[in-house]
Amino acid sequence: MWDHLRNFVPSPSAPEVSPTPPPQTPPSRFGATRILLAQDPDRPVISIREHKNDSNYNDYVVYITQFIRSEGTYYAELLTLLRTLTEASAVTIFISSPGGSLHTGAMIASAIRMSSAKITTVALGVVASSAALIWSHGHNRHVIDGAVVMFHMSSHGDWGNSQEVALQAANTVRYVKEVAIDPLVYQGLLTPEEAETIIDRRQDLWLDSTELNARLERMSHGQAA
Fold it and tell me: What is the reported pTM?
């Protein structure tokens, strides 16, 4: 009576054998995963390319050309790279961005300053707000002709009662003074009057490539802005 069901019972077959898994990409000698990011239309935030230098170590070129996102995961590869590279490598970061998250910008800037690799930041087009913060922390800084860099006090929205909002705003101002307008970073790049304009007067400061390159040249000779 079960003969009509035989066609639906699978016949015994040899057990499936899993194909040999592809070899994993070995980590670089610096401990960071080799980074070759494809352009993802849904995440066009950052791209990183690597190439061998004359000493057979890896150098990297980074492009930050979008809004600086508040989600640090977008920049995890870059942060790992900056943390693990040695002085045998160099990283060139091209920046053209209207800015964005202060905290993400400060996180990237801190990683640049602490990196053992030689970090060069290059300003392209408009580099503003937190993007200017990142650019300013490069070990070597360059400005392409026609680029402009804008520094300003952060903008933010706070929620809560009046006292909480006032406290949050005061802490943000203090944070900007200590981190975003770090005197050790901006000494020679900005005058004390310009720093006062940014912090105390809450005014935007725009510097074009001609002025910035002149200041960077004077700094290379130990002269003040």
Answer: 0.72
Q: Report the SS3 class of residue 19.
A: coil
Spell 49-69 as b/e; 16+ CB within 10 A means b: ebeeeeeebbbbbbbbebebe
CA distance 155 to 172: 9
Contact present, 144 and 122 (Cβ < 8 Å):
yes
110: closest CA among 44, 161, 8, 178? 178
Residues 6+ apart with CB under 8 A from 207: 148, 149, 150, 151, 215
No. of helices (H) and no. of strands (E), the chain: 7, 7
* pLDDT above 50 for 179: yes
User: b/e for 140-153, b at 16 or more Cβ within 10 A?
Assistant: ebbbeeebbbbbbb
Give yes or no for residue 16 having a pLDDT over 60.
no
Could you give the 3-state DSSP secondary structure of residue 85? Answer: coil
Q: Are 35 and 84 in contact (CB under 8 A)?
A: no
Model confidence pLDDT, tens digit, residues 106-135: 899 989 999 999 999 999 999 999 999 999
**Which of 133, 113, 144, 135 is closest to 208 using CA atoms?**
144
Walk me through the domains of the chain, giving residue ranges and CATH numbers.
Answer: 29-220 (3.90.226.10)
pLDDT, tens digit, for every residue of 19-73?
Answer: 555 444 444 444 444 444 444 545 557 888 999 999 999 999 999 999 999 888 8
